[in-house]
Prior knowledge:
The structure holds 2 protein chains of 2 kinds. Helix content of chain A is 34%, strand content 13%. By secondary structure, chain A is α+β, with helices and mostly antiparallel strands. In chain A, the strands form 8 sheets. A 6-stranded mixed β-sheet of chain A has the order 2-1-8-3-4-7, with helices on both faces. A 4-stranded mixed β-sheet of chain A has the order 10-9-16-13. The longest helix of chain A is centred in the last third of the chain and has 22 residues, at 597-618. The radius of gyration of chain B is 18 Å and the shape is globular. Chain B has helices spanning 20-26, 66-75, 95-105, 141-145, 173-177, 217-221, 249-255, and strands spanning 82-85, 107-108, 116-119, 129-132, 151-154, 160-163, 186-188, 193-195, 227-230. Helices cover 19% and strands 12% of the residues of chain B. In chain B, strands 1-9 form a two-stranded antiparallel ribbon. In chain B, strands 3-4 form a two-stranded antiparallel sheet. In chain B, strands 5-6 form a two-stranded antiparallel ribbon. By secondary structure, chain B is an alpha+beta fold. Strand 17 of chain A pairs antiparallel with strand 2 of chain B, so a sheet runs across the interface.
Amino acid sequence: MIGGFSGKILRINLTAGEITTLDSQKYLDQGFLGGNGLGTAVVWDLLKDFSIDGLDVKNIITIMPGGLAGTLVPGAGRTEVTNFSTAGFPTMDAKTMYCNPWYSRSNVGGKVATMIKLAGWDGIVIEGRASNPCWINIVNDKVTLEDAGPKGHNLWGLDTWATQEAVWQIVAANQKYGGWLKLASGDDYTTQRPAVLCIGPAGETLSRFAALVHEGGGGAGDGGAGSVFGSKRLKAISVLGSGSVTVADPKALMETRKWHWANYSYDVDNPGLPSDASVAGKGRQTTAQAPGIRPGYNSGSFLGQPLRYSSCSMCFAPCKNRYQDGVYNDMFCSDSWGTAETPRVAQQIASDMHKFGFNTRIIKRTSTFVRALQSMGLMGVGKKIDSGKLQLENFGSFGWAHSLFQTISDRKEQIGNDLAEGPIRFAAKIGRLAEELATGDSLAFPQQGNLNSEAHQTFCGGEWAYGSLIQAKDINEHDFFWNYKAAAAYSTYGFGGLKGPITAEQFANHVSDCMAPYQGDPFMLDYGEGETGIYSVHKAKQIAWHRHWSRFFKQTLGLCDWQYPYWFNSNASDLKGNSPEVEVRYLNAVTGLNMNIEQGMEIGRKIFNMDRAILTLQGRHRDLEKFSAFMYTAKAPRTVPDLFTVYKDKQWQWWGTKEFSTPGNWGPTGKSNMDPAGVEEWKTHFYKVEGWDTKTGWPTRATLDGLKLGYVADKLYSAGKLGTA
Amino acid sequence: MADVQGKKPEEKTNGKGMSRRTFIGTGAGLVVGGVAGGLIGSKMVSGPEAPSLPKAPASFTDIGGQTALRTLVTSMPPSAAYLVHDSTKCAFCQTCMMACSLAHEGKENISLSRIQIDANALGRYPNDLVMNVCRQCVTPVCVEKCPVGACQIDTANGNVRVIDQAKCIGCQTCISACPHLPHRTIWDSVAKKATKCDLCLNTPFWGEKGGPGGKQACVELCPMNAIKLVPQTPPQSEKAGYEVNLRSANYEGLVSKSNTTVWWQSTPAK
């Protein structure tokens, strides 16, 4: 057996009440080493028809720990969740505008992955729908379906925090935490609480942006995973493991971790900001790379409160906090509530949001959309959009937000029922979707209704925007983002006494040298709109590299994109980080597979192509891969993560938001806009780089055969969707 | 809360004009044979530069009474080193537990870890987490109670309290005898034997020398520097001694820049 794996996947059919196992060896042998790769390969095998709705009883949700989870590898504690989306995004066909349940993914940190591994499983697959509310209790190899209804443990109706605490007590039976618990699985003991992944009221009532919540602020929200649980009448999965995870080379793993920490991590006892002169030069730059990232990432907002820095399993860059009153425990930047009376109220709202079990990014966008409609005089009691009992006064108060959460999760009133369908469907129902996507005024969803995480993350022409366009979802990957932020801070401001700069040319050369198998092409990092820029084959290669890297190293092995890849290190004499060396060392120490970076990238390409085949069978086509109309206007986001590299006038330059926004500097019309024709050029380049049909964007047999995915090509052929060019 | 770094701005005195830190510094060799809790109260006793003593007898189960206890004490040399920790600093990354099992057993297993972190993610700081290490007790009841001498003092290696797996018969006497919650002797449900912290004397899956003069996997890999090996014998009372302040001044500055109170000084030790 490959190190790090048990060879078993837990398969639960809720309709039949069957608990069985799948042999994971055949998937591992093909390179599907956990996480997204394993989940997608299993879905491909188990689900014959991909034209299902996210709430369909046939939808499968997979919960797969990253392949390196459950070991000492730092930042590898993530669990991938895959399902056909209930959130969905509309096509651009105005006549048939509908929300397509694109095959989606999300992930969650905390302790879920480690516990699944320690319980002896490579992952969990959930099928079917229970007849009554239930939850799944996993204690090592003892797995039971439990009653979550009023005649059972009465979990249905509880918020996510109360659910977890109730499950902890149920699993402990009459024993108390603080000592060793004797487990139901036999002669096994632990001092740990189970890891619980659960839904709140929002998931129970099938809000299309409900999340799976874990601990205080962890969650897998994209794709409406919480509503998939709700549709299956599944309240929670609890996992408690006391077993072992094998490691192929324990000494190599220990040595790599020591080397990594000693040379590339922060010094916890000198954890000040790199820009803080009082500590400059003493500490190492954080592994999370950004100048503002340090233990307790959010502590800056709440100075004065004693707090604990908090980590996901095995991570040495704790980016969360735990507080004296438990409010805002383990929450994060994306949990920050934008408009609140005070920072304290913002914390309370964020906690409330997690208790209801919402996808934080979408509920926040929903709130601003509601606020905009109110401001425009369109929403209110007795108005065109009747707000019912929704509290619209005192915007920014806890009561305003709580009323929104309650109304949506109740679905009792028309406004709540409509909003629970998600902002895109809601906007369509009230007749404003086309206008909103054209103007980007109140609902700036840039990729065909895809969520605009943050303006700077969907900078037009950036890898985030293009990646999300291709994946039919917000990719939410911070790798380039953090490395650029770190280099920009170094170049512009200096880290305390460590003055930059690293030149744009040095940065582009170094990073591109790390991007096997496309290494040696610095123009992949050209964010300008010249010949080598964002419409060129160079940009197509960057996006291809990014998709492949993410699919394997981030989403299959489970490496956190706040730590990997690590290209820029301000404290090294050559300013270089440790990627891709560090990823490969960890991979081989745990698995014993003796792989190199190119082999990992090739598996990433394989997973990406299987994923693409599923999207193709769902109806994905070149014609659908267009940005929303506002992205081609001056409304398009041009805020960048501090600085990007641009090649212009035959020289490399650092460009910030100012340069990108200055009329005449950028864009085909000199208005800093994206060019629709340029995007089409880029798509053709990208499909060619991937070996896909340039007319349709569908994978070809030659490409799939080369990846040993001939069976995937067969299915596409049968469906009449195999690329030919 | 004890302060093994000596960085605490305010040092409490022992009533004789001697600070605790001073006492530690000058106390070496003062006391050998202090007994848990009742005999020495909250005083720090010295680390042993103690002479090597005869190996502990196989069992002390027949010993009782004060006189006998003193005899026992003098024949059970204290460990040359102790693990102490700062629970307020721990980020609950679980690294220490995984490092422990990997170094000793060659596999990742929290339940086989000799250090156990009990945390509640929904709890309230600082009472949301407790670190539990083997205390290398001055009076090791596990050693005292073991009927076959498997749980013993390794006099050749700094008097570390260890369990000889070859001798262990799996009776779990050491587990039930450990007075601490959770018990610091560990049950290996696969091997059907007990094990315990040996300060990494026997870590075949790690390329480092352990023991009192060496390195410990949990200390070496803890990213928060929340575990430390010290030569001083901590107070043996149940709720104090091993819980110490390991935070630096820089750490203090980041945590609460706008709060001039050094808040953890008033944090009660667990």
